[in-house]
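As a point of orientation, let us examine one representative protein, giving the amino acid sequence and backbone structure tokens.
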Amino acid sequence: MIYRKLSGGTDSEAGSRFVEQMLTVVATCRQQNVDVLDYLTRCHQADLDGRPIPSLLPVAPDPQAA
């Protein structure tokens, strides 16, 4: 990924984990056609409200809904 080549890395283990997690979120959002900024905004608002963050796991169809 170009970001990793151009970023110069991080200065800490925590910084490395943050970048790793953010790149994973971005890739997952893109695969699921989810707007990244919208998702991150919803996560931040959920945290502020004390609610669980929205899941990026695909929702399986309900077999009883058919």
